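WARN no homologs supplied; continuing
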Amino acid sequence: MSVVTLAQISDCHLFKDKAGRHCGHNVFINLQRVLEQLAQLEPLDAIVFTGDLTQDHSVESYQHFNQLVNEAKFKCPLYFLAGNHDDVELLNQQLVNDVIKADKEVILGHWRLLLTQSKSDTPAGYVDDEHLNVIANSKSSNLHTLLFMHHHPLDVGFFIDKHGLRNQTQFWQAVQQNPAIKAICCGHIHRGDSYFFEGLNHLPVFSCPATSIQFDPNSVTLSALDIGPGYRILELDDDGNIETQLHYLDVGC
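OK structure emitted
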């Protein structure tokens, strides 16, 4: 049995200033350290970045991401989608090199990766009718599907839920039409965890640690835990089984 191995990274929150800090953490150095470690883990089949590249919305923050990916010298492609902080046009303009790819549907072995847009005109998420139609109808008799998005599609029980997916009902109705979907991978909540949607035989929702800061779920406002940057590894078997592990670096800078 062959295995497709992926890394997911999310929520970099970079600044124009490489020394910029988010809740006291140097997010540029954190991303650099994560990418360097991932480069040592290869061979990977792909890396998927699930949004919120920028914190200050500067062009330079996008250029920094591109620079760090170049410096990591990955041999596998990196795919991306927009978070609520991101500018889609800037993402497409700036994230261009031999490694970074703009494809939103990727076939790897017995798996289809779908990167769906959940960015809206507010910090909360919204999946529009076009993308709901893709989710519902991108099925195949011989391919399993792994769906990536920025926003979390179910409530996780802390302050970030006020910025969650606004049209959860429509989203899950679309997912229910596609039995090929084996799991959903999201960012946005700055925590690595596993959740299950009870309406679809406990379909798993895997959230990704941030490369920037990890949110404190016990705080009523944004507060960072004393936990370093992280990422998720996913191993996808031919039979549709998924094995996944979370990895965290030391707190560092």
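The two ends are 41 Å apart (CA to CA).
OK
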